[in-house]
Specification:
The complex is a heterodimer of chains A (116) and B (117). Chain A is mainly beta. Chain A has no helices and 12 strands. Helix content of chain A is 0%, strand content 50%. Chain B starts with a strand and ends with a strand. The model of chain B has no long low-confidence stretch (mean pLDDT 92). The chains are: A mainly beta (116), B mainly beta (117).
């Protein structure tokens, strides 16, 4: 069974607008971490934001915030005030703290296009 | 501080040949990981080193793949003999190993794009 699901293969957003990239996950491990990575066309994977399963508040890092809804098992990434440089592939990922070791499980990714 | 580096950035080889990929982790990072993304699919975990020891190699697809990390610094991933289905992007990542499992941030390199013809 897929553990990380990103249902949007591609998304378009107008520059300066906000955009939400969806991510749902599946785990029975009560201890887990959720991550978002950005992969621009140059290929490197850039860590954006982290949310722990026990964290009470949604994580924020600059223009990035993670809308964590634990009961729904969703961890959507919100990018505020989109910039042209935000055009990239975005991966949602999870690590299970008790059962998964250090392996990170990735979703299929969402390609974001920011329009000028 | 230099990030994770990988060499080569691209490799095109014929089926049956051998290819060796190299990864240099961030200095001081004891944990090193290999992942790969084959055409259009998810990024999949291959294995995890702690210093020079293999901690978890559950993701290695078969015995044609051999990973080493002599001296606990850089790592190599050898594919011998390469098959068509081995084509994809091979990522290396590293982490300090100080945080707990679930929150340890893994920093990725730019990947090696391997094409087997």
């Amino acid at each position: 069974a897929q553990k990380i699901t990103q249902t949007q293969p591609g998304m378009f957003v107008q520059e300066k607008e906000a955009v939400t990239l969806d991510c749902t996950y599946d785990t029975s491990d009560p201890s887990y971490g959720l991550f978002w990575y950005k992969q621009p066309s140059s290929g490197e994977m850039i860590f954006l934001i982290y949310q722990g399963s026990y964290d009470q508040q949604n994580a924020t890092e600059g223009r990035y915030s993670l809308n964590f809804q634990k009961a729904r098992k969703s961890a959507n990434l919100v990018i505020s005030a989109s910039q042209l440089g935000d055009s990239a592939m975005y991966f949602c990922a999870m690590r299970e703290g008790r059962t998964g070791g250090f392996k990170t499980i990735f979703g299929a990714g969402t390609r974001l296009f920011v329009k000028a | 501080e230099a990030g994770v580096t990988q060499f080569p950035s691209h490799s095109v080889i014929e089926k049956g040949q051998t290819v060796t990929l190299r990864c240099d982790p961030i200095s001081g990072h004891d944990n090193l990981y290999w992942y790969r993304r084959v055409m259009g699919k998810e990024i999949k975990f291959l294995l995890h080193f702690v210093k020079e020891s293999k901690q978890d190699e559950s993701g290695m697809p078969n015995n044609r793949f051999l990973a080493e990390r002599t001296g606990g610094t850089y790592s190599t991933l050898k594919v011998q003999p390469a098959e068509l289905e081995d084509s994809g992007v091979y990522f290396c990542a590293s982490s300090q190993g100080l945080a707990g499992i679930r929150q340890e941030t893994q920093y990725f390199g730019p990947g090696t794009r391997l094409l087997v013809l």
